[in-house]
Design brief:
Elements: H1 3-7, H2 12-30, E1 40-41, E2 48-49, E3 56-57, E4 67-68, E5 73-82, E6 87-92, H3 99-108, E7 113-122, E8 125-128, E9 132-136, E10 145-151, E11 162-167, E12 173-178, E13 186-193, E14 196-205, E15 210-215, E16 218-223, E17 225-226, E18 231-232, E19 234-238, E20 244-256, E21 264-277, E22 282-284, E23 294-301, E24 307-314, E25 328-335, E26 340-349, H4 351-354, E27 357-363, E28 369-375, E29 388-393, E30 399-401, E31 411-416, E32 422-427, E33 436-443, E34 446-447, E35 451-452, H5 458-464, E36 468-475, H6 483-491, E37 499-500
Parallel strand pairs: 1-8, 3-9, 22-37
Antiparallel strand pairs: 2-4, 5-6, 5-7, 7-8, 7-9, 10-11, 10-36, 11-12, 13-14, 14-15, 15-16, 17-18, 19-20, 20-21, 21-22, 23-24, 24-25, 25-26, 27-28, 28-29, 29-30, 31-32, 32-33, 33-34, 33-35
Length: about 500
């Protein structure tokens, strides 16, 4: 079934009626549209928002609608031609492409390029700009969409936030759960098992908090804290077989800077890594990843399930020595038959050599790479403008910055598609304030130019959106949730007590 039909959230007959009405209106308004006349030609590229010039995209991505950055431009006339044939045309306040025609053009030009011609009218004068290219990858996303949290600016008060899912082939977004449905609690970290919407975990924090695990068609609400851990179960990552899930437990604090371009610092006075057995409701502790004088964090399993990766740093005196905390990237063997860790820890990236701190490791599902964020210190990189994405090649042992994807602002919270060709991440490059989602692909170890998550009217949308995107991930199908039922369960006192081993 075509992606467009899969993503549709409304009745097909109603859709046809609406399209017919819009077509009639379009015919009536066509004569009123401003068309390019007496055009002045320039060799400059058009200054557009978002900057989609020379990006590489998959066939199953929504139209890359865009506007001129100059607010005084009144009309745009845009033509997109495919190297293998096909053509799109749009005329209006911004480039607004038909979704079905867009996907037909991309499918027709898979592995080729699109040439975009832009004419813009300002103060009654039309200007024709130099053409630019958009490249259509041979590799599809192979994912229905993405999940993420949208959160407004806040430090102490949770405010209004929610877990959302978005179809990547269209602009349709749907809330999975809002914290207004659970007495304003904090909800975060929706984490599927390798983009599988049938198995996921997320947290609800507050006076009646819980760790919610969805697997085998049912929800299990775990008691938020275990007295033997001294904290909650956070930063989850699933074992590929689905029985185990790795977590960390963190004593997290925050402080504000008085004389620093960074606004806030988030740090852990202590943290440990452990594995949770979903079948026995048992927390499996191990001294290798729960050292007294060390802070272990951000655990992830390898795609074959044989390794547990995590970051670790010697604990510092907080808050005075917060900027001396630098994390190594390590791994230890994992035995899925017993749930036990191995006896030896391998260090893959050493802070003593880089002078930097590793955080948020994410293995590609083909087992080739580990993508991670590198910052000056600490692990909570969203507040670090210097934080960049790096790529460790597990075949060669070489690690290097993903230069094409990095910017002067913070890059973080990255995840891979199931086919390991594409990745998403959050970045504050748009305005330095809000985290937005960007997508890019890895081809031959190199990243293509990232592009921001498409929106139908992107200039207006991103100007008016006062939320940041947080902890995004891909999902192969829509997540089937019942927010009302989930809200009632979270507000209840029914909790599973976890054991410790």
């Amino acid at each position: 079934m075509p992606m467009r039909k899969i993503c549709s959230l409304y009745n097909e007959d109603m859709r046809k009626q609406v399209l017919n009405i819009l077509s009639l209106l379009l015919l009536l308004l066509t004569g009123c549209q401003s068309r390019p006349q007496n055009v002045v030609t320039t060799d400059h590229l058009p200054e557009i928002y978002p900057d989609y010039t020379e990006v590489t995209i998959p066939t199953d991505i929504a139209p890359l609608n865009f506007a001129m950055t100059d607010d005084e431009v009144t009309t745009m006339d845009v033509t997109v031609k495919g190297a293998k044939g096909g053509e799109l045309h749009t005329n209006g306040a911004f480039a607004d492409f038909d979704i079905d025609e867009w996907h037909q053009l991309l499918e027709q030009n898979k592995g080729a390029k699109l040439t975009v011609s832009v004419n813009a009218e300002k103060d009654g004068q039309w200007t024709a700009y130099r053409d630019f290219s958009i490249y259509v990858s041979n590799y599809p996303l192979d994912e229905w969409g993405i999940t993420y949290r949208r959160i407004p600016p806040s430090y102490q008060i949770y405010s209004k936030m929610g877990l959302y899912q978005r179809c990547l082939a269209t602009f349709e977004e749907k809330a999975m759960l809002m914290n207004t449905q659970i007495n304003g609690m904090c909800i975060n970290c929706h984490t599927p098992n390798k983009t599988n919407p049938d198995q996921y975990v997320f947290h609800a924090r507050g006076a009646n908090g819980a760790t919610i695990i969805h697997r085998k068609g049912k929800d299990e609400l775990l008691q938020a804290k275990n007295e033997f851990l001294g904290g909650s179960m956070v930063y989850p990552y699933w074992h590929p077989k689905g029985r185990y899930c790795a977590f960390s437990t963190n004593a997290t604090s925050q402080m504000f800077h008085f004389a620093n371009k960074k606004r806030i610092e988030v740090y852990d006075s202590k943290s440990d890594v452990f594995v949770y057995d979903t079948e026995t409701h048992t927390i499996l502790r191990d001294t290798l990843t729960m050292k007294l004088l060390w802070a272990e964090n951000c655990p992830v399993f390898s795609p074959d399930g044989k390794w547990l990766y995590y970051i670790t740093a010697r604990r510092q005196l907080y808050p005075t020595d917060y900027d001396k905390e630098r994390y190594d990237l390590c791994r230890v063997a994992f035995d899925e038959t017993t749930g036990k860790l191995g006896q030896q820890v391998d260090t893959l990236v050493r802070a003593a050599q880089t002078g930097k701190s590793v955080t948020w490791p994410r293995p590609s599902y083909d087992g080739r790479y580990i993508m991670y964020t590198l910052a000056d210190y600490g692990y909570f990189s969203i507040w670090h403008p210097e934080a960049d994405l790096w790529l460790l090649d597990l075949q060669t042992g070489e690690t290097q910055p993903i230069t094409t994807a990095n910017s002067e602002e913070a890059e973080s919270f990255h995840n891979w598609t199931g086919n390991s060709h594409w990745f998403l991440f959050t970045s504050r490059r748009d305005d330095g304030l809000y985290s937005r989602i960007y997508l890019s692909s890895i081809e031959g170890g190199k990243a293509t130019k990232p592009f921001i998550l498409p929106q139908r009217d992107p200039k207006r949308y991103y100007r008016e959106l006062l939320d940041s995107y947080n902890t995004p991930d891909f999902t192969s199908r829509p997540v089937d949730t019942d927010a009302r039922l989930m809200g009632k369960e979270i507000e209840s006192n029914r909790r599973i007590i976890t054991k410790t081993k």
